[in-house]
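Tip: read the tokens left to right.
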């Protein structure tokens, strides 16, 4: 089985949308012209090049393409003829899809050629508000957010490794010094190097079946009733939040049935509960609402955006802050269940948001 690879070119000239392989052009020319030399002239190529390409393709495909008889017009082998038939069939069937693909690519590349448009790559913990922000940024400004959802830890690592210009992560509203959040995020974030941009406050809670048939209102209830829990993977912000809440309750992880069972997003966890694969999951209200689940609020948390201090004046970051500070974004955020604005678009220091750094001045002792 031979696999296909698709390629495209950039050009100033308008041309019909087509997906073609150079081999097909060679076979059509030989079939129409009756000889390799005439096909080479029709394609404005050298005889040596066309002959060499045809031989290379025969070796690659493991089949002869032409009948090579001295003194006779060149003609396609049955295999070569079938290749042309397959090409005609595919082009006839896929022409609308090919045109749609070309149009989508042209729209995407239009951004690259628009000096007023900006693209910001954002790695972030899964959050429905970010999807709403992407739509609003595109509507209010020519700002395109390239969002890639991943765990909070991986998002910040991606920022530090230069794979994105901004990262999104979340913590409890008042993360305590010495907490798991500190041990997780403090090694990744450095005062003076990173800056927080205010984004939102949201509620996390238990996503349960309609009517809450097991009567789950706390993590103690989840443990005591041996409710089937679905967790989030290591490295995600919600996993960190869960472990912090368990520590505050004095519950070991093994007290939660299904602690090791994971789903990659709030949506996937809600779907597991909605499909009766689990009884409960920790997640956000929007995800529970979308699946028709009941939501039991547990804790407020802050969702942070973080970038390098050196990137604050980049056009994409400036444009994003403009969107975040707009009245329309505040209205959009308030319209999402469980969300409220939280100094959206403001540049904040790490010390003011995460109380883990304390620098005390050493007293200077006078000489005796």
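Filled-in amino acids:
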């Amino acid at each position: 089985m031979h696999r296909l690879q698709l390629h495209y070119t950039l050009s100033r000239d308008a041309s019909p949308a087509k997906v073609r392989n150079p081999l097909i052009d060679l076979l059509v020319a030989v079939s129409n012209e009756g000889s390799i030399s005439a096909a080479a002239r029709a394609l404005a190529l050298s005889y040596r090049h066309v002959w060499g390409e045809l031989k290379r393709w025969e070796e690659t495909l493991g089949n002869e393409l032409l009948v090579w008889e001295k003194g006779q017009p060149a003609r396609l082998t049955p295999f070569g003829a079938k290749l042309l038939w397959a090409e005609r069939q595919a082009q006839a069937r896929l022409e609308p899809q090919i045109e749609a693909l070309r149009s989508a690519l042209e729209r995407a590349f239009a951004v690259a050629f628009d000096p007023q448009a900006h693209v910001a790559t954002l790695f972030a913990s899964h959050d429905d508000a970010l999807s709403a922000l992407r739509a609003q940024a595109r509507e209010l400004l020519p700002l395109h957010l390239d969002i890639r959802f991943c765990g909070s830890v991986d998002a910040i690592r991606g920022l530090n490794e230069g794979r994105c210009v901004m990262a999104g992560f979340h913590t409890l509203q008042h993360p305590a010094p010495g907490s798991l959040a500190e041990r997780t995020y403090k090694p990744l974030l450095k005062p003076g190097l990173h800056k927080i941009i205010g984004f939102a406050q949201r509620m996390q809670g238990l996503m349960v079946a309609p009517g809450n048939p097991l009567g789950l209102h706390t993590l103690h209830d989840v443990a005591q009733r041996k409710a089937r829990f679905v967790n989030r993977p290591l490295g995600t912000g919600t996993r960190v939040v869960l472990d912090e809440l368990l520590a505050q309750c004095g519950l070991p992880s093994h007290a939660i049935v299904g602690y090791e069972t994971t789903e990659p997003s709030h949506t996937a966890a809600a779907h597991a509960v909605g499909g009766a694969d689990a009884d409960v999951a920790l997640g956000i209200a929007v995800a529970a609402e979308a699946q028709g689940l009941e939501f039991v609020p547990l804790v407020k948390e802050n969702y942070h955006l973080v970038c390098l201090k050196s990137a604050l004046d980049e056009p994409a970051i400036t444009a994003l802050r403009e969107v975040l500070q707009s009245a329309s974004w505040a209205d959009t955020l308030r319209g999402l269940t469980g969300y409220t604005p939280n100094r959206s678009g403001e540049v904040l220091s790490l010390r003011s948001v995460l109380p883990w750094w304390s620098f005390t001045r050493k007293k200077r002792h006078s000489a005796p």
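Residues 169-314+321-353 form a domain with the D-Maltodextrin-Binding Protein; domain 2 fold (CATH 3.40.190.10). The chain has two domains: 22-109, 169-314+321-353.
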